[in-house]
Amino acid sequence: MNAPIKPGSKQDRDALRHSMTAAGCTAADIAVEMRTRYRMRPREAWRHARGWTLQEAADRISQASAKHPGDAVAADASLVGKWEKWPGPSARRPSTAVLLAMASAYGCQAAALLDLDDRQALPDTDLRALTSPQPEPEPEPYRASVPAFATPPSGPDLVRLAADESATWAQWAEASNVGDIAIEQLMAETRALAADYLVSDPIILLGRTRQLRDRTFSLLEGHQYPRQSADLYVAAGYLCGLLAWMSSDLGQLRDADTQGRTAWLCAELAGHNDLRAWVLSTRSKVAFWDGRLREAIAYARRGATCRPTGTVGVLLACQEADAWSELGAHDEAVTALARAKDARDAITDADDVGGLFSCQPARQENYAAAVHLRIGEPADALHAAEYATQLLAVQPVRAYGTEAQIHISRAAAHLATGEAEGALEALASVLALPPDHRLAPVTQRLHELTSGIGRRTSPGSAAVGLRAAVEDFCLDSAPRHLALSPGQGAA
After folding, report:
1. Are 212 and 23 in contact (CB under 8 A)?
2. Which residues lie below 8 Å from residue 353, measured CB to CB, with a gap of 6+?
3. CA–CA distance, 300 with 298 (Å, rounded to integer)
4. Fewer CB atoms < 10 Å away: N or C end of the chain?
């Protein structure tokens, strides 16, 4: 049984720093928490907020001061410890040059390194110099400190210097700005976002996803073990993939493409095949709704070559069939639908994320219904749509977007057989969707449906009423509201 973590120990401090970093807290936030929780002096709190030992801090303070030769500081671990304790006993007062170099190393204002005791003990001239407004510095990147030699080292001195440099680098390499629990939490929050998107307001979810992506990017800009970097790239890739899918659903296809390219870079840097497949599925989706049907097919086929273990193989085959049907290629579309069934049988593992990044059977049948409609098989389309409705009823989460498209396929199948009344009944729940849930794929599928209604229909017919209802629906939709709203900044 593991021993409990001792309050104030290095393990406790590291856990606090990792959890606060994962929660999006700044170094200043962490320093304040360190001071409050562990009753630290401000300079010590800032050092622990960065996760540095006394010697690592000394190296960085000396390095930062080297930019100002007249105020160069020769720091060592012992001195840093004494500067931190001042104005207490057995301490040494840090000079203005020391405090400025320390602030530069930690990436903060010099005033942030002082509390009331410090301010009362400092000479007025020093206090004014340290508390005057200054540009916000960035923490210094690490470089190993090299002792000054009158002549180039040789013999035992050279060997010892090389060993010291390696030991110093090892101390740096061993430190990490993120822990395994923090990474696990990032993935848990990513899964929650992917699940919530199926049932929640897309604009709100996009904002939350953007915030989590930014936290992940911030962690990647720090220092961690290679395996942790790979895990962070996986999280970042899925989050950018979510943003790509959401952007597409809101009709912003160019922005969706940008998110897709970044998601692909993350997948490549992580070397993660299932993520590669999901990113290519997302890019296929964006290309399809942008009218780039051959690209959509190419992305779907390329995704299948990643040999994914979860349900994305099913979705990729469905997307290929969708694009072929839009091109009017009957045989290719039917063959791709058959591959989707084979991919379902070949699933070997659960999806990493789930939610939006999962292809449940109802989603598969929704694609099948749309494909059969486009290749002139309305009876098969109606059968697939009705089967999809039955499957949705037993799913733990009913995705409103998928459900709406299933009903649209039912309505289109009824129209194809001259049953306009049946089409109106099938669309009743779709037309009742709140505006925030009226996403681009739904409005575009409705436009496809009404474009097939003959223009010679009598004025009082159900078909004309259906066309008018669809026009009103699309005018009050999420993509239209987004297009008409003032810019709020890119995601």
Report:
1. no
2. 187, 190, 191, 194, 238, 278
3. 5
4. N
- pLDDT at position 458 is 42
- 187 and 134 in a common domain: no
Say what the pLDDT of residue 346 is: 93
Handedness of CA 30, 34, 37, 39 (dihedral sign): negative
Structural contact between residues 425 and 406, judged by C-beta atoms closer than 8 angstroms: no
Residue 432 sits in a domain whose CATH number is 1.25.40.10
Ordered mean pLDDT values, 10 residues apiece, the chain (491 residues): 71 86 85 90 93 88 76 82 89 90 90 90 85 61 51 74 76 75 92 94 92 91 88 97 96 95 96 97 97 97 95 98 97 97 94 96 96 94 93 87 92 83 85 91 88 52 73 86 63 53
Q: Exposure of 12 by Cβ count < 10 A (0-12 exposed, 13-18 middle, 19+ buried)?
A: middle
Among residues 82, 112, 142, the one where a domain terminates is: 142
3-state SS class at 354: strand
Residues 73 and 198 in one domain: no
Q: Do 356 and 219 fall within a single domain?
A: yes
Query: Is 8 buried (19+), middle (13-18) or exposed (0-12) by CB count in 10 A?
Result: middle
Return the closest-CA partner of residue 284 out of 256, 250, 309: 256
Nearest to 140 by CA among 248, 58, 247, 32: 58
105/60 Cα distance (integer angstroms): 6
Considering the domain architecture, whether residues 214 and 128 belong to the same structural domain is answered as no
- CA–CA–CA angle 126, 131, 132 (5° rounding): 105
Beta bridge partners of 98: none
pLDDT for 447: 86
Residue 416: the pLDDT is 84
Are the C-beta atoms of 281 and 312 separated by less than 8 Å? yes
By residue range, what is the domain housing residue 206?
Answer: 181-484
What is the reported pLDDT for 143?
53
- Number of structural domains the chain divides into: 2
Q: Token pair of 360, please?
A: 């449940």
The secondary structure of residue 5, as a DSSP letter, is P
The Cβ of residue 482 has, within 10 Å, a number of other Cβ atoms equal to 17
Domain boundary among 119, 142, 165: 142
DSSP string, 181-216: HHHHHHHHHHHHHHHHTTTS-HHHHHHHHHHHHHHH
